């Protein structure tokens, strides 16, 4: 991301309801890895990339929210291509509503499902103006009540814009967590709960990006690049290559 709405001290102190309950429940029940191994995995990720960043571009917490909504079933690169011009003229809910659905649709038509997404972005912008004073709420329930915003999007916004140690489970996180042995969850929510209960607290805020980046560039879906993997010796994946 080019720039982010930085987290506040109070945001850092708070955790989401799901994170709190998962940590309380010790959520590591589905992990085959020992806690020492998990700590070592995240220690290595931290050494390799101390300040991991997401690749969706945004200029404030509102454009972050819009970018994440647009990224469903689309690549970050494809979304960035469309939003670079869009966010120059519509970087607040008010400006997005003024732009209107028809023009917005035209500007994001290279992104899959753009018609639905344009409708949702206009509706969520109207809701932000009417119910939240034009601000992105620091609240999971309020975020998930916005059109086009589900649990994964709320987790990204809470993590990136507000510094919460949430875990947005996308296709990369789901695959990597299951391969390494951090979880054997069969649903994104099960994997999220396992990870939240397992990841060392000091890795919490960055863990989401480390797993995504590892899945995107090293532990790829079709052919994981095990030969250059920094956690090769700790990974429990039976199909890992020598
Ligand atoms: S060793 Fe291979 S399968 Fe295991 S995490 Fe690394 S890249 Fe993925």
Short note summarizing the structure:
With 242 residues, this protein is an all-alpha fold.
List keywords for this structure.
single chain; 242 residues; mainly alpha; Endonuclease Iii, domain 2; Endonuclease III, domain 1; 13 helices; 0% strand; elongated; binds iron/sulfur cluster
How do the helices and strands line up, and which of them pair or pack?
Layout: H1 9-13, H2 17-24, H3 35-48, H4 61-70, H5 76-89, H6 93-99, H7 101-107, H8 114-132, H9 140-144, H10 151-160, H11 171-180, H12 188-198, H13 204-217
Helix pairs in contact: 2-12, 4-10, 6-8, 7-8, 11-12, 11-13
The structure holds iron/sulfur cluster (SF4).
Task: Give structural notes.
The protein is an all-alpha fold. It folds into 2 domains: 26-53 and 165-228, Endonuclease Iii, domain 2, CATH 1.10.1670.10; 61-160, Endonuclease III, domain 1, CATH 1.10.340.30. It is built from 13 helices and no strands. It has helices spanning 9-13, 17-24, 35-48, 61-70, 76-89, 93-99, 101-107, 114-132, 140-144, 151-160, 171-180, 188-198, 204-217. The relative contact order is 0.17. Bound molecules: iron/sulfur cluster (SF4). Residues 179-180, 218-219, 224-226, 229, 231-232, 235, 237, 240 line the site of iron/sulfur cluster (SF4).
Number of separate helices? 13
State mean pLDDT (0 to 100 scale): 89
Give the quaternary arrangement of the chains.
single chain
CATH architecture of the largest domain: Orthogonal Bundle
Shape: elongated
Provide the helix percentage: 55-70%
Distance between the termini: 34 Å
- What's the number of domains? 2
The CATH superfamily label of the largest domain reads: Hypothetical protein, domain 2
Kindly estimate the percentage of residues that lie in beta strands according to DSSP. under 5%
Rg is 18 Å
Query: Structural class, from secondary structure content?
Result: mainly alpha
- Per DSSP E runs of 2 or more residues, the count of β-strands stands at 0
Q: Which ligands accompany this protein?
A: iron/sulfur cluster
CATH class of the largest domain: Mainly Alpha
Under CATH, the topology of the largest domain can be stated as Endonuclease III, domain 1
How can the largest sheet be summarized?
Answer: none
């Amino acid at each position: 991301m080019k720039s982010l709405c930085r987290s506040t001290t109070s945001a850092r102190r708070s955790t989401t309801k799901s994170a709190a309950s998962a940590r309380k429940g010790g959520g590591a029940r589905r992990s085959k890895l020992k806690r020492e191994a998990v700590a070592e995995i995240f220690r290595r990720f931290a050494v390799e990339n101390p300040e991991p960043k997401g690749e969706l571009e945004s200029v404030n917490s509102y454009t972050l929210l819009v970018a994440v909504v647009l990224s469903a079933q689309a690549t970050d690169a494809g979304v960035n291509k469309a939003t670079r011009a869009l966010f120059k003229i519509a970087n607040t809910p008010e400006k997005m509503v003024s732009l209107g659905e028809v023009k917005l649709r035209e500007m994001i038509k290279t992104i899959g499902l753009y018609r639905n997404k344009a409708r949702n972005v206009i509706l969520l912008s109207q809701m932000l103006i009417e119910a939240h004073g034009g601000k992105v709420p620091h609240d999971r329930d309020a975020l998930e009540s916005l059109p086009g915003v589900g649990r994964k999007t709320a987790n990204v916004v809470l993590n990136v814009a507000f510094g919460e140690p949430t875990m947005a489970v996308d296709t990369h996180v789901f695959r990597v967590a299951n391969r390494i042995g951090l979880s054997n969850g069969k649903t994104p929510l099960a994997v999220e709960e396992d990870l939240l209960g397992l990841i060392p607290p000091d890795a919490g805020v960055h863990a989401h990006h480390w797993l995504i980046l590892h899945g995107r560039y090293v532990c790829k879906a079709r052919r994981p690049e095990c030969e250059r993997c920094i956690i090769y010796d700790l990974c429990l994946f039976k199909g890992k290559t020598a």
